[in-house]
Amino acid sequence: MKTQKAIAVVMIVASSLLTGLVCGDIAFPAILCMLGLLGLQRRFIWDVAPEKRVVTSLLLLLLAIMFALHYRYGSSSSRVVGEQAAAIAWQTIARYFLASMILTLFLGSPRRLPFSLGLFHVAVTISAGQVLLLYDMYVAFRLSELFSVILVLLYIALARGVPEISVSHRVGHMSRRLAFGLILLVTINCGWIASSILYRHVEVLNYLPLWFWSGVTALDNTTGGQSRIGFSTSGELSSVLMIKGEQDETPVLSIKSDRSPGYLRAKTFEAYLRSDSKWLDRSNTEAIYPEQNGPLGMHFGRRLFCFDERDLSKCRNMTIRHESNLADVMFTPLGTVSVEAQLPVLTLGEDDVVHCHNVHSGLTYDLTYTNSVHRKPPTQEGQMLHVPKQVEADISHLASRIFAGCSTTAEKIDAIVQHFHTNYTYFLGLDIPPNRDKLTHFLLEEKTGYCEYFASGAAILLRLADVPTRYVTGFMVTYKDDLTGLWIARNMDAHAWVEAWDKELNQWTIVEATTGEDMNMASATEDLEHLRGSSGAILRQFLQTLYQYGLFGVPNWLYESFGLFGGLLLPAILFGAALCLAWLRRRKSKSFENEARSASAKSAELVILHKMLARMDRRVKAAGHRRDLSETLYAFSQRLRKGDSGDGLWTRISDWYLEYANLRYSRAICSERLQQLTHRLGDSL
Fold first, then answer.
1. Which of 363, 367, 322, 365 is CA-nearest to residue 81?
2. Residue 259 phi, psi dihedral angles, 5° rounding
């Protein structure tokens, strides 16, 4: 009884915390939690039999709450369909189940705890879990579902108490323990599989509470709470640095297409504000309503939105699914003709960027785009030719030098691309002094940067050559998942580029001014996956099977991947490897203290070496040479030696780098050699 009561305490506290987390209100769950702890004392009990009738009454009360919500929100004049309505519905249901869970503690026999306590705990977890999924808290959802299943299993197993077992029945006692362990393991995996099913059908589950009031609620139609990831929505320079710097491979979009999707547009900007180093969106938008695909103007299933009168049979098709929440953004290529989605209305900008309200994770839409070039002329040509006066004064001479001898727009675009690819390098760690214009500093002094700076510089310079341009952000999609056959847009694929209007050809042209390191990053990763062969696909299949089906999926994966012999051999190899690792760890445990003592002394010497290397790198950079992050000390030393003009300066510095490398990577750092290296540093400088 005591153990079961302890588990009941954990269930009550966990349900209260989870409800408070998803509802944003800790007062109501805290009060119910205290009442629940009081109810566990079983002193204030209303002995009602059978308990089943009370549970049935509570479930009927749930329907009454749903109809009350229908009356509250369904009659509002301001109706917004979306995930916010689903969130408030699931929050209400979670509060209801938590209150019902506490109520059952004051019902039934005082000699035992109610069985329905575990039932309502699972109900609270499922309801709150749907809100967690809406907020993209997938890990918290998985762990909460798994934790609740374990608690309920232990709670039910201890309901009748654990019988006393004598020593003579030790074998039977061990078998019961083993059986209980196996049941616990099976139940954990069943809970994991159930959470996978709930995750895959989250959209259907979210529709259920909305169905009672036609999916409408009076909420503020804003997107401030939605996550904006993977691309720049602000237009401010350096806004993509945190996204690309982490090399986050989290999928944002999955695309079905017969060819690489390439550039997917999310946001365009026309005006550059020098004071804030920021691009501004000045385009106007209009509402686009779907075409009628049913009698009497009714719509069935997905709705077709047409932006152009081109023949759709001559266009290419693409299907895009959002794997993350993206605020009011639909990703489309340049030249999109139509979009087919289950949405009531879309907005289309003058730049042909498509927006919609209440974009949620799992949104899927089909689109068609032209095979030929996009020929819609700019409607705000003045904005697309505007350059701030101070920026124009600083870089006008650079523009004159780049576009010397260029007469057509195509020649100017080729000239600007060649200029950046020849004279600039791709580098994420851009360091701009304070009180300096970021773009001017990049163009005239730093000459290292990433896609935002390359695109902004190309757009401004082309405007000085009388070429209308706009700054575009979105994804550059080049990675394809071999297992699913889908193209994947990841956070690390966030990109910025330029679209320029070619007056001679009467078409928009994509200008890719970013140097090769950025654009080849995804293709290099894809080549590496191909070099790995089928092992990469097998590993991804294993992780996917384990994530969806838990340990139940491992036998099937072993059989399908390696056959019967491989399925038996691989566990034996893993078990043997585990024994070997345990033996090696025990063997090395005796020398751990000696290594710890030597590490403390060695760390001080390493700090001195790092300071010397940083000092030398700064002096060499000031003299005109710069060591790349991926360049080894030996390669940099050879490059310095080749650049010696005859006075022997760079030869001495080259020898210092070699001596540093020999000392740094030796088995033991000698103090005498360290002092000699310090003296040579002063002599070289």
1. 363
2. -150, 170
Question: pLDDT tens digit string along 261-318?
Answer: 989 998 899 989 887 788 888 888 888 888 765 544 444 557 888 888 777 677 889 9
**Widest pairwise Cα distance in the chain:** 102
Closest among 495, 555, 560, 32 to 267, alpha carbons compared:
495
Whether 501 and 610 map to the same domain: the answer is: no
SS3 (DSSP) at 415: helix
User: Can you give the pTM of this predicted structure?
Assistant: 0.47
Report percent pLDDT > 70 for the chain. 66
24 lies in a domain? Answer: yes
Whole-angstrom CA distances from 109 to 1, 43, 101, 113, 645 are: 14, 10, 16, 8, 97
Identify the domain boundary among 509, 530, 551: 530
Shared domain for 24 and 110, answered yes or no, is yes
Q: Are residues 401 and 513 in the same domain?
A: yes
- Both 70 and 177 in a single domain? yes
Count of domains forming the chain? 4
Nearest Cα neighbor of 345 from 299, 391, 377 is 299
Smallest Cα–Cα separation from 376: which of 346, 355, 408, 350?
A: 350
Pairing between β-strand 425-426 and β-strand 448-449 as defined by DSSP bridges: parallel
**Cα-atom radius of gyration of the chain, to the nearest Å?**
33
Same domain membership, residue 664 and residue 578: no
